[in-house]
Amino acid sequence: MNEPSFLLRGVIDRSRRVFALFVFTLILQAGCARYQPKPIVLDQTAGNLEARSLTNADLRQFLSTNLGREFSEWPPQSWSLETLTWVAFYYHPSLDVARAQWAVATAGRKTAAGRPNPTASVTPGYNFNAASGLSPWFPGLSFDVPIETAGKRARRMSRAEHLAESARLSIATAAWQVRSALRVALTDAATAGRRRELVRGQMDAQGMIVQLLEQRLNAGNTSALDVSVARLPLVKLQADFADARRLEVESRARLAEALGVPASAVEKLRLHGPIASEAMPEVTSDVARRGALQHRADVLSALAAYEASEASLQVEIARQYPDVHLGSGYQWDQGENKWNLALTVELPLLNRNQGPIAEAEARRREAAAQLIALQARVIAEIDRAVALSRASVEQLAGMRKVREALRDQLKLVEARLNAGGADRLTVEMAKTELRSSELALLDAEIRTAQAIGQLEGALQVPFQALSVIEHERDGPTKKDCL
Questions:
Q1: N or C, which end of the chain is more exposed by having fewer CB within 10 Å?
Q2: Number of domains in the chain
């Protein structure tokens, strides 16, 4: 054999092998994901949060789409609970967290659906006693193809589907929490100014009483004790007025927190809070309980979590059965081509996966207990909300009757004053009683509005197209979700 030709063929063979290895490496890398860094700059994120406002053009489009109407002026002059609810759905960070958790659970479905990759092994060998003229190297190549048994992959996928569904329903739970907190904050913020004015009116009337008593004291028609007794309620009202001003500022801050915007965004808003009505839908505890247990998002989420625990138990039971590995090998042994087959099965003699099965059974019992405890809590919450709403509505109706009676009494006293049958002090005392009843009526209206809000939160009557909250702000609109 010609030596140069032999060397040339060797170089060509090595070049071909290197080229084949290079092509194989490129094929493997073509399907690989690449890392994309997304650093978080705290100054930038804080600036974005501070820049949130209710004049945003994107927010206007979001509200128009989901409320089904265009705004003739922007921003609107008055903000209602319905409008601000969608503002909270647009801005509140807890929904972003819930959506991100759903995305994590959804990505878990891809992990569950993955199949085990085959493996390849290169096993070169060297023969120190090779015959003369033969290459001492005998390279070997083997493949291993794992085959899952007992439906493990299908059960993993079922578990991942239930976990993703539980996470999706948690978004609706977070939305109800956002709406409930918003309703309380809006009620307080919308009534804070009215409370302040009522306290001011009561304070002015009590101040007039003190002034009239001081005039009588100077004229010798009353005692200093009567004046001192009248001053004590005035001092308390002055403290109440200062507290009302503080609560007015604080309620705006809580409203901003409930919306997910800075406090400066709600400073000058005209708010239209939930109206406390004496009319209440006729609903019994049994009807409300059955309805809520069928569609409440947290109950359905807990049910999906229980089904995921059942699928986890099925996965662990399936792991009792060993997987099968099919193998094939090739070896070039000093001029001889050798090929073999292999079948590998784990022998479950010392371990039948008892530990993980026991843990999965315990987690299933835990999920069942959590679901039953949640149902009991929902039933109690509904019963309490129904009873509280009815009592609040009855109390509101009674306070309105008292207010009307005191109004009639003030009119009679003023008529007697004009006829000379009463003095100015009697009129001012009647005004004080009326102002006190109006303040008590306001408290009753707030309690009734909050009680009805608790009933709404307990029943969790679905919003129209509530599925829009599942998507990011720049995701599909309501029309895309229906």
A1: N
A2: 1
